[in-house]
Design brief:
heterodimer; A: Arc Repressor Mutant, subunit A; Alpha-Beta Plaits; 21% strand; B: alpha/beta; Aspartate Aminotransferase, domain 2; seven-stranded mixed beta sheet; 14 helices; 12 strands; globular
Amino acid sequence: MNELIRLLKQDARLSNEQLASMLGITTKEVAEKIEKLEADGIIKGYSAIVNEELADKNSITAFIELKVTPQRDKGFDDIAKTIMMYDEVESVTLMSGGYDLAVTVTGTNFKDIALFVAQRLATIDGVLSTTTHFFLRRYKEKGIFIQEEDVDERGYVAP
Amino acid sequence: MIDYNSVLSDKIKKIKPSGIRRFFDLAQNMQGVISLGVGEPDFQTPWVVRKSAIDTLEKKRMIYSANAGLAQLREEIANYTYKKTGCRYHSENEVIVTVGGSEAIDISIRAMVNPGDEVLIVEPCFVCYAPLVELMGGVPVSIQTKRKDNFKLTASALKEKITDRTKLLILPFPNNPTGAIMTREDLEKIADVLRDTNIVILSDEIYSELTYGRKHCSITEIDGMKERTVYINGFSKAFAMTGWRLGYLCAPEPIVKEILKIHQYAIMCSPTLSQYAAIEALTQCETEVRNMVAEYNVRRRLLVDSFNKMGLDCFNPEGAFYVFPCIKSTGMSSEEFCERLLNEQNVAVVPGNAFGESGEGFIRVSYAYSLKHLLEALKRIEAFLKGLNI
């Protein structure tokens, strides 16, 4: 992977000066590269990795499997695009395997999400079935252990 | 009443405790220290290795292995070494699996050094060589490397110290504490000096996987050197496996045969569980190692650039996970600098002279720490330097 992207995925708050040091290039070059990544649509935005359990006790996320009949000429695209327009929907992914679309939805209670699925998703033309799974606990997000505090047990000084 | 002084060996009583110890005690008693002082990876041992050890515990009996190590592991070590250096060692009689690189260093020195033999030690370096030589009644002779040579060993410095009594040259590259490496061209020149002598090389290449920008070159790759080299490597640094205590040595059969006697009587065999895990490390962890090296490299560039910007001259180290900036511009000694930095900003780094006199005027800064940790430490070091008003 592009080293600049790897660093930004790890910590998007690094300054251009710091990134320049780490990559052995100039600050100006860093700025240009980032600008290009953004312009090319490779970097779509910057967000924090949040322990949702601590940030908002009422926040609930569900993972919904959708079986869908693909449409002539358009495949799954139209249905995916319809689903992703809802603000509640966090992600939509076309999958291989036992179902077609994986949708994550965030809400504040089980009932809201269940109703959203029943009223909004299940009723879309071409959607054959839905299966809803609720997130109970997140252990790892974007490569980071959510639950564990990283403790350095190595002591301070050693040869 | 027992007189402890009279029961202890004269040789061991004469040996000084590691210079790093005093500083360790100082730091350990403080609160909120942010350390850049440790010489072991911050990464966890790759999960595939840990998982294989767990599985091994479930399935296998933990019994002694062959003295020299599990046959399969020695085979993999020979393969791996061949892949890295092009040198073919016979796994049956030219490889010993040891308790870390440390044991390999110890038993090699014990097998070769007679009282009065001179052992050339390239400094600054890891702390164990001279005491181990002294224990054998050998005479450690230090060869000081210099900043102007990027802390490489030069042929002229080597020639200067060779006498009729010279038995062994200890060659520790990539180097702890400087991060210096020896390129093929550098090693050719050393080989030219040694080729017609009877001097053996103990090449401690424990950091060989951790080089940046160019591939590590082993002295064994140079014409005529394999026959006179004890090649030492291990799992601690490359695979983040320090606590597993596993290393190895490869050398010509006549040398290995004698070294093995010491290993057999002193150790019996290296930990069997670690040996099984090590097979996994050698065969399954190429990606993990590559990722660790990429991460170290980013940190390395950050530190070198930051120290130079702060006005502490820092040469570009191409190996290990240390940078070795010069602090002479502050007018302080290495120890003074480190003590004040610790007391005033709670940052622990290691005084360069803990690794030999030639390290005076420098500090060893480890980047076996997360970027976040490094950035915070750098901020504090900068504040410390600003406070000095130089």
